[in-house]
Amino acid sequence: SAVISQKPSRDICQRGTSLTIQCQVDSQVTMMFWYRQQPGQSLTLIATANQGSEATYESGFVIDKFPISRPNLTFSTLTVSNMSPEDSSIYLCSVVPPGSTDTQYFGPGTRLTVL
Amino acid sequence: AQSVSQHNHHVILSEAASLELGCNYSYGGTVNLFWYVQYPGQHLQLLLKYFSGDPLVKGIKGFEAEFIKSKFSFNLRKPSVQWSDTAEYFCAVNANTGFQKLVFGTGTRLLVSP
């Protein structure tokens, strides 16, 4: 597996502002993933972040709203831009550690509340 | 598009009762199947997974799941639950195409009463 940390663990933000969430892994990984878990719902993939290339976004998610950076093999950020109350969710990053063969391991999540 | 259905949203059991949580998926090709668990206040953890081979897979904490290809199912079972099994359980699927996108079910909240 891997040790994955996320910052912040939770935040309360005002409508119209932006929040950047960090994901740090203790090993070098090729792909990192960002998911959203809206209240009472399941996890939905936002995008896949590969180091050195543009993130690949899923249907319904766009780069202007959720810009992602992946500056190296152990770190990624997800920004939630121009937030509205509908963005209140838990945001999680996940990775496939070396040798884990298609098995994703998840970070602790960032609980975001937008007022 | 892939989808995953978990039939039970909330399950309440007494300790020592047997557990079976249903999971069905829709995808015509080869899939990898997972059960994740989220204990209260903790992050999502892998419970077990199936890629190929023996369709009955065993995971941590006495859980097992059976892949039935003809039914597109991957049900989770435990013969005797404990209070500490109280958690939310998620079934997830990815198409075995190398893209590693996970599609999750809606989750089942299990409450085990002592």
What does this structure look like?
With 115 residues, chain A is mostly beta strands. Helices cover 0% and strands 50% of the residues of chain A. Chain A contains no helices and 11 strands. In chain A, the strands form 2 sheets. In chain A, strands 2, 4, 5, 6, 9, 10 and 11 form a 7-stranded mixed sheet that branches. A 4-stranded antiparallel sheet of chain A has the order 1-3-8-7, with no helix packed on it. Chain A is globular and about 40 Å long. The model of chain A has no long low-confidence stretch (mean pLDDT 93). With 114 residues, chain B is mainly beta. Helices cover 0% and strands 52% of the residues of chain B. Chain B is built from no helices and 12 strands. In chain B, strands 2, 5, 6, 10, 11 and 12 form a 6-stranded mixed sheet that branches. In chain B, strand 5 and strand 6 form a beta hairpin. The mean pLDDT of chain B is 92. The chains are: A mainly beta (115), B mainly beta (114). Chains A and B meet through strand 5 and strand 10 of A and strand 5, strand 6, strand 10 and strand 11 of B.
Provide the fold topology.
The complex is a heterodimer of chains A (115) and B (114).
Chain A (H helix, E strand, L loop, with lengths): L3 E4 L2 E4 L5 E7 L5 E7 L5 E8 L5 E2 L10 E5 L2 E6 L8 E7 L9 E2 L3 E5 L1
Parallel strand pairs in A: 2-11
Antiparallel strand pairs in A: 1-3, 3-8, 4-5, 4-9, 5-6, 7-8, 9-10, 9-11
Chain B lengths: L2 E3 L4 E5 L4 E3 L2 E3 L4 E8 L6 E6 L5 E3 L5 E5 L4 E6 L8 E9 L7 E2 L3 E6 L1
Parallel strand pairs in B: 2-12
Antiparallel strand pairs in B: 1-4, 3-9, 5-6, 5-10, 7-8, 8-9, 10-11, 10-12
Question: Characteristics of this structure?
Answer:
heterodimer; A: 115 residues; mainly beta; seven-stranded mixed β-sheet; four-stranded antiparallel β-sheet; 0% helix; globular; B: 114 residues; six-stranded mixed β-sheet; 12 strands
